């Protein structure tokens, strides 16, 4: 198994390579840094197009090699330049060719520094991938060499997509602490009037207890509770998604796990509406796992 790290020659961001090497240290898997060069015509059809493609591929290889040199442990990263009709398709082709357990990409350059942001490529990738997709926040340069804690984003669809089971399996494999987190957004008003804050807090406390009961029931059914003594449960509440997410403690070495949307195709990644809102405000790397077994082996 390998880890494919997507590299954008135009942005030359090292964020996905940093995250990929972190994951590689956890799993022992080889990291393959990949630059995908888009081409509209097959090789040999147009001589000028072929010359242009070779030039672009050479520039991408130079940029990728330079960036790998800045990564701690970069000498263990191999690189590949791949031609495809689109970047998402090329990354999926490489994932299949290299038997990848996960594809790692970076955030959009238009996003906030230190936050996860989907661009046109990552948006298409997270709705088409047959393997887990990990997304590094913009400018990601971790202070830790490994992932130290996993946080599973628990929501209503988590039961049907098997996120809790996947999270437990990953925590066991990586020998890290597991945390379950749920997020709730407080409405500013209801039916044109203000909501009494004490009544609102009571509702949130009741919802938190129900969430904890459901999570513990799933863990007990999976026989996992006894083997995970370091399990934590937190609820983040706020007036908007950013505030709710920031209400939960995040630190270097954290990674969030999101389950693929229940409406998405089985064995493929599909980002649901709630997951999409959570992802766009995350200050730590995010891994989206398909609706099937463990995210990695």
Summarize the structure.
With 297 residues, the chain is an alpha/beta fold. Helices cover 36% and strands 23% of the residues. The strands form two sheets. Strands 3-2-1-4-5-12-11-6-7-10 form a ten-stranded mixed beta sheet, with helices on both faces.
Describe this entry's structure for a reader.
With 297 residues, the protein is of the alpha/beta class. The chain is built from 9 helices and 12 strands. The strands form 2 sheets. Strands 3-2-1-4-5-12-11-6-7-10 form a 10-stranded mixed sheet, sandwiched between helices. The relative contact order is 0.15.
Rg measurement, Å? 20 Å
Termini gap: 8 Å
Main pleated sheet: 10 strands, mixed
Helix residue percentage: 25-40%
Name the descriptors.
10-stranded mixed β-sheet, 297 residues, elongated, 9 helices, two-stranded antiparallel sheet, 23% strand, 12 strands, alpha/beta
How are the secondary structure elements laid out?
Blueprint: E1 2-6, H1 15-27, E2 30-38, H2 47-68, E3 78-84, H3 87-97, E4 100-106, H4 120-125, E5 133-136, E6 149-153, H5 158-161, H6 163-174, E7 177-185, E8 189-190, E9 193-194, H7 197-221, E10 232-238, H8 241-246, E11 254-259, H9 273-279, E12 286-289
Parallel strand pairs: 1-2, 1-4, 2-3, 4-5, 6-7, 6-11, 7-10, 11-12
Antiparallel strand pairs: 5-12, 8-9
